[in-house]
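seq as requested:
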Amino acid sequence: MESVTSFGAWVQQHRKALHLTQAALAQQVGCAVVTIKKIEQELRRPSPEMAELL
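struct tokens:
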């Protein structure tokens, strides 16, 4: 049985697996660090375009 992972948790897991900081990921996708933080904390839902970049 697969576990259900939130999108924010998925982003954080993959970011860490790639050894990226929130700042480095934000720079790569063209957004503010606070945006990445809020997505990972489930305080903000990304736009479809941002979700695709992540």
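The longest helix spans residues 7-17.
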